[in-house]
Amino acid sequence: MDPLxxxxxxxxxxxxxxxxxxxxxxxxxxxxxxxxxxxRCALSQSIERVDAxxxxxxxxxxxxxxxxxxxxxxxxxxETSLAPSDFVLPLFFNEVLDEARPxxxxxxxxxxPVAAAADQAxxxxxxxxxxxxxxxxxxxxDASGSSAYDPNGPVPRAVxxxxxxxxxxxxxxxxxxxxxxxxxxCGILRPGPRGHLEVDNDATLEVLAKTAVVxxxxxxxxxxxxxxxxxxxDALRRALDGTGHESTAILSYAVxxxxxxxxxxxxxxxxxxxxxxxxxxxxxxxxxxxxLREARLDEEEGADLLMVKPALPYLDVIAKVRAASPLxxxxxxxxxxxxxxxxxxxxxxxxxxRAVLELLTSIRRAGADFILTYHAVDAARWLG
Length: 384
Hints:
heme biosynthesis, 12 strands, ALAD, 2 domains, alpha/beta, Delta-aminolevulinic acid dehydratase
């Protein structure tokens, strides 16, 4: 049997009385020989593989490279696109500053004075960014994070200035208390078992709700609780609706992992925990099913948008949350991811522009509708 076409292989007919060796070269009628038994299985599998590839004959009819021949064709058939409107720019407003203070671990990022808010709003508008998310660094901190809901705090003042300068700019505010507590944790502390301090979930909800209402009153379009307390979305929704802010949306940090990639952020926001870590309320990086549970609960509590944080190490989680929920989904390209690209590009290891756009494309491809990223300004300029 011809292994390519399946037809019998012509072999000379054996002469009567001749040995196989004597008869091998003599012409005659076609007949089929079989391989030794030990080889039949292997040959049969080989023939099946060849037969499976014969019809339809894929190559040379199918040539995927035809759609890669030029930038015009590649652009036409591109499955995932990036635009400045996909990006949300994080900004840090420090109440005590009169001028920008660079963040040493995040080249190109600075803590800003509140007086710079209007200019930042105009910059975001000129670049066509999707929006801005604000973090505040207060003048004073205490155990309960009371500055978080001060109407004259850095975030409410920055929101008001931005809305005065660019009224239709999308302004999001981070709702958490780690920047405002003197211990750096994301909630109110209480004595736990054996005298250890722990975050009091339910007491923290009240502070978060007050903070969200103050931000909404200042003009925030969306409030974004990042604390990972149980029930925080429900608490914020009730507080907002009860104070006439039914139109203020909630972007929940639904899936926020206890990640090592937050390191540079903690300098930028001055919010490193003074003791312990945040593993008691942020998620275990090993868990995926828990992520889907958290997203479902926040959706049921009234979240309008969901977020996964960080982005790059959790593209699989982004894809699974995207498949499980119809809500708009964001992803946070966090400080550690940003710092890695900056460090590698500064060392000449990678091309910064190509690396950034590839990274952001991967986040969109995984299923994110929008991306919170410190690369927003550069990426918007590169995209034109």
